[in-house]
Amino acid sequence: MEYIPLGRSDTRIPKIGFGAWQYRGGRGVLRRAHALGAAFVDTAEMYGTEPQVARDIAGLRGEYFIATKVSPQNLRRDTLLAHADASLRRLETDWIDLYQIHSPNPDIPIAETMAAMRALVDDGRVRHVGVSNFSVDDMRAAQDALGGVPLASNQMRYSLAARQIEDDVLPYCQEHAITVIAYSPLAKGDFSAAGLERLAEVAADVGKTPAQVLLNWVVGQPGVMAIPKTDRPERVDEAVAAVGWTLAPHHRAALEGA
Ligand SMILES: NC(=O)c1ccc[n+]([C@@H]2O[C@H](COP(=O)([O-])OP(=O)(O)OC[C@H]3O[C@@H](n4cnc5c(N)ncnc54)[C@H](OP(=O)(O)O)[C@@H]3O)[C@@H](O)[C@H]2O)c1
What we know:
TIM Barrel; eight-stranded parallel beta sheet; two-stranded antiparallel sheet; about 15% strand
């Protein structure tokens, strides 16, 4: 596994972690990820999978990086603090490694939300603060409101089939050392027939699977890690083997032109 720093911090995270939206669990996926050096899981109060994540990493808490999210309707100060505690209980832990705002809520002042996040960092319930689906303006406002607490990450849809963040969010994050956590990196169903064909050709050429090519392409961008979701342990091995090698420029160009 390869690792990158989380934001400006000394914490290092794997380039491949695992998402828990629609995750059923119970089949050893997260334990296999841990064994392969990819002990990073992303869940959310909205997913309803925090209890399953806790069960699946039982006994490994100290070695696991847990990212979870508070839903946008819960961003008032007292509500957020109560929802953080509820996530802690469901995750059976005393701390959340990365607590993310699932998406912006223009009806609740970001200053109020981030004051609550700062309180959670101050008392150790949260190690790092992140956001998700935030525009550049949203990130600026979030960092202003966080004061001395660095904004660690922005979780965004990013794949070969969804490259919108390259316009502004990705360059901004790279410039300000905000890690991009790429969600839906496998972009299931989002490719044209020609795109799928090109993907298959490149995969055959480099001796990797299409999923590995997609993941390698995403995490080949500086400051980006990806969180594919799988319920199949063998796909953990496949995803982890998506790093440790580099797509040649002509392969990248072929994929990007498809
Ligand atoms: N912040 C947000 O707003 C947001 C939104 C969406 C997602 N997310 C996060 O991102 C994570 C991943 O996103 P996602 O679930 O939308 O998309 P994804 O990871 O790109 O795709 C997941 C799908 O791909 C399949 N899959 C996994 N490995 C595969 C492989 N090697 N070959 C072929 N198919 C494979 C999975 O099936 P199997 O389970 O059967 O392997 C599942 O159906 C979520 O779990 C969640 O943590 C965040």
